[in-house]
Amino acid sequence: MTSLSPMTQPFAVVDAARERPVCPADVVWDEGVPDAGPGGPTVFDAALAGRSHRLVRADGVVLPLAVQRWQDDADDDDGWLLERCHGATLDLGCGPGRLVVALADRGVPALGVDVSVRAIERCLERGAAVLHQDAFDRLPGEGRWEHVVLADGNIGIGGDPVALLRRCRDLLARDGTVLVELEPDVGLWQGAAHLVSDDGQVDGLAGTWFPWAVLGADAVDEVAHAAGLRVTERSSPEDIVATGRSFCALRACEHFPGL
Fold first, then answer.
1. What's the CATH fold of domain 10-252?
2. Which residue from 125, 154, 172, 182 has the least number of CB within 10 angstroms?
3. For the chain, which residues make up each domain, given as ranges?
4. For 231, left (φ over 0), alpha (ψ -120 to 50), or beta?
């Protein structure tokens, strides 16, 4: 059994996960009681299997999923994120692990976290250090990660960006950053969503409605402030035009309740 404490240094966690995936049942916390982890298929397994490529919001807006990008190796369009990770990095909702692998190739210790069994399998095939766990459950190395990444729309996890960013803030070391991918030129949307295939068909579990959110550059300052964070850097207009993607870096506010 792998025994890890919430106080474990991120470097040791990454090394352990490289040897094999750290599963929730293997993690023994201070109380000595194993945490129950996620199990079974998730709604995004269908997307990773290539069967669902669109996310449909409850308000009727259809968002394409960049499934091929998730599966491919990281490229220049991911450069904004990769160039800002200089120390131990936690990628929440890592999917097939392209960013984790790219960071490891740069000599940056990185750990992916995902609830999808299919994502975990793909990470292992790539040699990515990965944890099969939910972002809101206790994770190794809390309060010691230098960077937490929310890419590919993962700011939507749980349907409450403020709660998710507060969670990320708790994971960070002092002066750490949360690196977030945003939707360009939109504000904040929160509600329910489900997945459909390109022909509009609903595929089993993928058709299950789940809480989701979309956060854009127009609303990120307000949302970040509510989470005790502040925006310290943004993608330039030129970068957004070149890649079609928008990012920002967040740091903890110095004077915020609970800090």
1. Rossmann fold (3.40.50)
2. 125
3. 10-252
4. beta
Amino acid 98 reads: R
> Do 48 and 96 form a contact (C-beta atoms < 8 A)?
yes
Amino acid at 148: V
Q: How many CB atoms lie within 10 A of CB 236?
A: 11
| Exposure of 187 in the CB half-sphere (CA atoms within 13 A) | 4
Cα 124 from Cα 69, distance rounded (Å): 18
Helix axes 117-126, 98-105, angle to 10 degrees: 30
pLDDT at 221 over 80: yes
Q: What is the pTM of this model?
A: 0.85
- Helix segments in 44-180, DSSP class H: 45-48, 67-71, 79-82, 98-105, 117-126, 161-171
φ/ψ (deg, to 5) at 171? -80, -20
Is beta strand 145-150 parallel, antiparallel or unpaired with respect to 89-92? parallel
The whole-number pLDDT of residue 34 equals 30
If residue 14 lies in a helix (H) or strand (E), which one and from where to where? helix 10-19
Query: Using an 8 Å Cβ cutoff, are 195 and 203 in contact?
Result: yes
The count of residues in the chain is 259
The mean pLDDT of 184-211, rounded to a whole number, is: 81
Q: How far is CA 219 from CA 213, 224, 226, in A?
A: 12, 9, 11
